[in-house]
Structure formats: C-alpha cells, structure tokens
Write a structure and sequence with these properties.
elongated; 9 strands; 2 domains; non-membrane spanning protein tyrosine phosphatase activity; SHC Adaptor Protein; alpha+beta; cell adhesion molecule binding; 6 helices; about 190 residues; receptor tyrosine kinase binding; two-stranded antiparallel ribbon; about 25% helix
C-alpha cells in the first residue's frame, strides 16, 4: 500500500526523535533506523518508511508569524537569534544532499564556483554547448534548470538558477543566456 503520510521529527538538544523511543544524533540515522524498523501509530497502523521527503514550507499567510519567531533569541539553548540558528541548520544540511554534485567538484571546475559549498546538481545542471569538447570542463557552468510543477492552471515554466559571475566566468554566463534563449535576468 503506497500511501504518503506526515511524520513530525523533533530536534531537541541536538538529537532527533519522533516523539518517544530512540533518539538519534543525525536525521540520516533516524531515517535509516525507521527504514529497517517500521513505526507503529497509536492506532496500531504500521508505517513503512520507503522514501523520506524533506520539506519545510511556509504559507504566504504565515510569513509574518515565521519572521517574528525567527527574530526571537533562543537564550535558553544557544543565545542565538532564530535566523542565525536556521542559517546554521541549512549549512549543516548542505552536507547531507543525496543527489550527485560531482561535476562542480572536479579540479577543472572548482575555480568556476563563486561559493565552494554551493554546487549544481549533476542531473539538472546546465551544460554549455558551443564550447571546445577537448578542453576538460568547458561545458561546465554553475547553473541548474528549475521547472515548475504542472498544476493545470499555469503552464510549466523552466527557470535557470546560477551564481553571480566571476570575472573569469562572465563569458560563460552570457553564452548560457544566449544558448537558453533567456528573456529575463533577475
């Protein structure tokens, strides 16, 4: 039975749990544990974790409340403001990507990345076409395609997300703009 269900995972004192039971040092450990050992809801329903989906969503109507929450200092635990805690958490998540980003890590491509920890996913990265294939990494630019979902009301759109150009990559950026027939740059 392939159903989707929501499981709230708590993070307290730098450990993760699903409300009672074992505590784990990392989210990955928790997920791996419950993939092997199914959860049982209070109703007795067994929940088999097949494919976790990590999502943090804020509805537009709740943005003011979320900003107020992030502006509070968490003096009890760290004394840091919520924005700083969230930033640190996102930085830690950076290391946990399961999708490959090997092209951006190659020696010939490293100096083309403005931020060394923000690399394009291999499966959605933009590849430059009118380049010399004998030059290693010539097709590389730190950019990804982002497609909107088809919700039936709006057409599917494709966007490009890229880092700000470096002096050495400006020509690659403009090559991508022309290649992809880009109409708007933000």
């Amino acid at each position: 039975d392939d159903k989707v269900t929501h499981v709230m995972i708590r993070c307290q004192d730098n450990t993760y749990d699903v409300g009672g039971g074992e505590k784990f040092d990392s989210l990955s450990e928790l997920i791996e544990h419950y993939k092997r050992n199914p959860m049982v809801e209070t109703s007795g329903t067994v929940v088999h974790l097949k494919q976790p989906f990590n999502a943090t969503r804020i509805n537009a109507s709740g943005i003011d409340h979320r900003v107020k929450e992030l502006q509070k200092e968490n003096a009890q635990l760290t004394g840091k403001a919520g924005f700083w805690e969230e930033f640190e958490s996102l930085q830690q998540q950076e290391c946990k990507h399961l999708l490959s980003r090997k092209e951006g890590q190659k020696p010939e491509n490293r100096n083309k990345n403005r931020y060394k920890n923000i690399l394009p996913f291999d499966h959605t990265r933009v590849k430059l076409k009118d380049v010399d294939p004998s030059v290693p990494g010539s097709e590389y630019i730190n950019a990804n395609y982002i497609k909107t979902e088809d919700d039936g009301d709006w057409p599917v759109r494709t966007y490009l997300a890229t880092q700000g150009c470096l002096p050495t990559t400006a020509s690659h950026f403009w090559l991508m703009v022309v290649q992809e027939n880009t109409r708007v740059i933000v």
